[in-house]
Amino acid sequence: MKAGRKFVIGATVIVVSVVILVTQGVRETGVYFLTPSELAERSARDSTFAENVGFKVGAKVVPGSIRRDDAARTVDFQVSDGVRTYPVTYRGLVPDTFTDANDIEVIVEGRLGRDGIIRATDVLAKCGSRYEASYQKQA
Amino acid sequence: MTLLGEFSLWLALLVGSWCAVLSFQGRWRDRPELARTVTRSTYAVFVALVAAAVALWVGLVSHDFNIEYVAGYTSRNLPSYYIVSAFWAGQKGSLLFWAVVLSLFGVLAQALTPRRYAAFLPYVAGVTSAVVVFFVSVMLFAANPFERMAFTPPDGRGLNPQLQNIGMVVHPPMLYLGYISLTIPFAFAVAALLSRRLDAGWLHAIRKWTLVSWLFLSIGITLGMWWAYVELGWGGYWAWDPVENASLLPWLTMTAFLHSVMVQEKRGMLKRWNLGLIIGTFLLSIFGTFITRSGVIASVHSFTQSSVGYFFLVFLVVTGIAAGTLLYTRWPQLEPEAELDAVVSREAAFLFNNLALVGIAFSVLWGTLFPILSEAVRGTKITVGPPFFNRVNVPLGLLLLALTGIGPLIAWRRASLANLQRQFVAPVAVGLATLALLLAAGMREFYPLVAVALAGFTAATIAQEFWRGVRARVRMHGESPPLALARLIARNRRRYGGYVVHVGILIYFIAFAGMAFKVEREATLKPGESVEIQSPFGHTYAFTHVGVSQYEALNRVVSAATVDVRRDGKSLGLITSEKRQHVDSFGRPTFEPSTEVGIRSGLREDLYMVFAGVVNGTEQAVYRFTLNPLVWWVWFGGAVLVAGGLITMWPGAPRAVRRAAVPALAQPARELA
Q1: Model pTM score
Q2: How many CB atoms within 10 Å of residue B5?
Q3: How many other C-beta atoms lie within 10 A of the C-beta of residue B232?
Q4: pLDDT by residue (tens digit) across A54-90?
Q5: Rg (CA), chain B
Q6: What confidence tens digit (pLDDT) does each residue in B399-421 have?
Q7: CB atoms within 10 A of CB B86
Q8: What's the CA gap between B171 and B542, in Å, rounded?
Q9: Which of A26, A57, A106 to mutate to test the interface with B (most CBs of B within 10 A)?
């Protein structure tokens, strides 16, 4: 019985530390995932939001808005959810899936500057459904 | 052929449902001929599904582009081995692949299980058939691979270029084989619960199966890392993406299970825990399939989003409730036969190992689901990424690494102080010496220091075990040391094979620690210009841009950028990275352009080069260079782990002693309450 109790103490230590690690981890590394409209709403409500809070924005790239400067490895573009549009600037290499085609969905991670431009630290691009779109139009 | 395929699917659906109904209804217990019918119908289902698979393959090979799946994943100029692998490259085909292989495993379980476990088999047939029926119905009602289109395109769309890689030919089937074979241990667990034969019998019956699934999962995950590393081009092999996490979750719980069964076999404890683990592992494999295919969680490499995911969600919930209820009704019969004698004992070490593994699984699951959970509870989506997973899992992983060294050395039941001294003095000394060496070499990062020191400790415990075993054989049988080593492993495959697996794991840990030191640099270079990067091992690498060439290959137009590499002034040769635009047989572009990474692999560090493009049509090129320390050791650790797994699984000579330990299963089972 004594051994059982000792084990329970050890087990509790492990379980409690897992819980602490997880909750702290979420608190300190969690990042908001917002649509452009939600971002607008939040930054309007909370004036410290811009510059202070990191977030991710999931939206579509506005067609034709991409300006690349290859030599400086910077890309400027706009993202929109149809309601709100935000300009984004990113220094770094964009993935292959980030193209000028229509309907590119991106996840932009970064912060909002006071000037209303999103300074991106990371850009992920998702290709839309690939086959259906191209053939069903012809059918 | 599509007619044959579709017909075969319907046949498999009918026979499989019939098998499952007969099995669960349980009349066969009084009627042996009915029991035979149940088990044999799994063979019929298998034959039907093989026919369906052949039909799809014929469609792929004959370029029947009227079939939507064939047009969607192949083209006339696709190399033939990718046409074979297109079978599992897409959603619909992979479902068929899954169903066929599951059905094959179901048949093998019927054919290969020793006679003494025959009482489980009709139930096992029922569970495997039910799962097969689920997959077949998903195909028939939501994702039919034989669907034809209203028109026939002249050429197919081709295979996604990122899937045109040898890793992608073998990685998915390996992972699928792991996922699929998990069904068999689950089926035996359910069979044990239904038949109330709740001693260790079912554990013996599935020992090989659990090892097979674990091995396939391990190979699948490692190949997945390799594919991500050489193909995705972000410079690493593990990003804690939901899809990667989904493959890791069942691996973690399965690893826990492989350890905790030993406690049940030796001491008759943990019966409920083991059943819970195996049920949980199966559910996690379904959960993984659900998040991979439903698109509920944003992932960079997801399947086409479709309603298929919701079939999996329903199946997950139904199976979870059914298995949970079943476990609950048998709860009183699962009393442990012994209690823990001492907290410093092998069984306690295994328990802590299980807690750590399940703790890691929990945190990975929590982090993966957090966007959904936070949105449901607080109304805002919050995501967590690699910083979260590293923060939580690095300490837990290190605890696990320490236990890997400690566990096998502690005696069962109760370890004496003398036992502890005898076992631990040398390994602890080696661990401390490793630490001192690293500190002297100037390493100051906390977690990598701890990781490598613990790896040194664990390696020493394993070396000590081998050394002692060999020495004992040399003394007792007068064998030469190499022969003694070979016989030692051959006579105790499970134990020493397990140690070899542990060696593989600690190599992984060292390699993971190496990634803490990766160096990355982006540069825009004109021909002749170069960039210098300091490596963590103290070398200076100089990358000089040579030029960009363009040419056409089989199914693609390629721009290739080449750099000349020097290490500390000495030339290492050229590295080339390509930008590929895939085209169909009419030369029209398919897909977005893709990057082929240039890698020069070494024991110390990999040079990893991504060509991002040229500046406005000039020969000025944009590059990202990454120095990735110790990556080669990940693949090497994987090979060691597989070798160890194969040793534990290798069939041994039949032993009369083993059999005596297993209670007879010949008498008829009791009726269900």
Answers
A1: 0.90
A2: 24
A3: 20
A4: 899 988 899 888 898 888 889 999 999 989 999 999 9
A5: 27
A6: 999 999 998 888 888 878 888 88
A7: 26
A8: 34
A9: A26
